[in-house]
Write a structure and sequence with these properties.
The chain is an alpha/beta fold. The strands form three sheets. A seven-stranded mixed β-sheet has the order 2-8-7-6-5-3-4, with helices on both faces. Strands 9-10-13-12 form a four-stranded antiparallel β-sheet. Strands 1-11 form a two-stranded parallel sheet.
Length: about 325
């Protein structure tokens, strides 16, 4: 099976260029570089089968504002399984966007039609059996208000359709989330622990939606789909409200800083979220390669017409990125 290209493929770049892994600055994933400091799980979480009465669901219900949720082994697992829970039909998927969505629906035999954010804004997605939206979108950061999304859901659900909303990057802007509106017929919301909390390696997330659909998804994923240590760590992270509030402020500030840095080197205004910024440029492959030869990995967009930059983890990394862009693009380093 052909695997799609994603950010985070550092191993491949290390092998291709022969630069030591410890020398690399990986800005390709959009994962929070200041992740929640996970404590060591208790020994029993390793030695017992995961249970459903460990407090995780209750902690998630408080965080997301709904009890209509199911822990899943990363939102990736849920989005890959959902297409098999309904008969093949016509599926609209926001594009550009996270390519795994379209690939998953195609694998399950559905007809996939990519629609731009502007086409969706005009209501084109409501004519389909399923509409897949990423809000805020990855990689361009475009977003839709909850009122707009709920209006689309109304039109789709009356015909027995679904609207799937991937909210992997919404934690920094929770007012855009549809989680508190769940459960509603035909609405499925996918949430991730990996991006905002920075716990990408844990592979834990949540699917939110109607109880009957979540029960079918749970059956399809099988028992104990989220391991015990991951459940314990996720619960601790979800109840740490002080960290969450402070981190949202920090990420908004650093996202603005990244916007200013990129604006100094690229003439086009960048789009994105507090966790990443994207610039469009016809020189994207060339710049991507030049940065890689300086051991800086950024995300080359699937259409190869732009680059996505995650947040540098510290001041040394900020200065390194600034200097590298100045050298590659023949611009002046920033002073911000």
């Amino acid at each position: 099976m052909h695997l799609l290209e994603h950010g985070g493929n550092l191993d491949g770049m290390v092998r291709r260029l022969g630069l030591p892994e410890e020398d690399w600055l990986d800005l390709s994933t959009g994962v929070n570089p200041h992740g929640w400091a996970a404590p060591t799980p208790p020994p029993e979480s390793w030695y017992r089968l995961p249970g459903s009465h460990d407090g995780l669901v209750e902690a998630a219900a408080d965080y997301y504002g709904t009890e209509a949720l199911l822990p899943v082994p990363g939102s990736q697992a849920a989005l890959a399984m959902l297409p098999y829970l309904r008969r093949p039909g016509r599926v609209a998927v926001i594009a550009p966007g996270y390519a795994e969505h379209g690939a998953a629906w195609r694998r399950a035999g559905h007809e996939v039609v990519p629609l731009s954010a502007s086409q969706l804004a005009g209501g084109a997605g409501t004519a389909f059996d399923v509409l897949v939206v990423i809000n805020p979108n990855n990689p361009d950061g475009s977003r839709f208000t909850p009122e707009t999304l709920l209006e689309w859901r109304n039109g789709i659900s009356t015909r027995g359709g679904w609207m799937v909303v991937d909210e992997a990057f919404v934690d920094t802007m929770p007012a855009y989330s549809l989680a508190p509106s769940c459960p509603l017929p035909g609405l499925v919301v996918l949430r991730s622990i990996g991006k905002f909390f920075g716990l990408a390696g844990m592979r834990a997330g949540f699917a939110l939606g109607p109880p009957d659909l979540l029960a079918r998804l749970e059956d399809a994923l099988g028992p104990w789909s989220v391991n015990g240590p991951a459940r314990w760590v996720a619960r601790q992270a979800l109840v740490d409200t002080a960290w969450q509030a402070a981190m949202r402020d920090r990420l908004h500030n650093e996202g603005d800083r990244l916007e200013r840095l990129l604006a100094r080197h690229f003439p086009q205004r960048s789009g994105g979220t507090p966790l990443f910024r994207t610039v469009l440029t016809p020189r994207a492959p060339e710049i991507h390669e030049a940065l890689a030869r300086r051991a800086i990995l950024v995300r080359l967009l699937d259409r190869q017409d732009g680059l996505r930059f995650g947040l540098p983890p510290n001041e040394t990394a900020w200065e390194r990125l600034d200097r590298a862009l100045a050298a590659v693009l023949k611009t002046e380093p920033t002073r911000a």
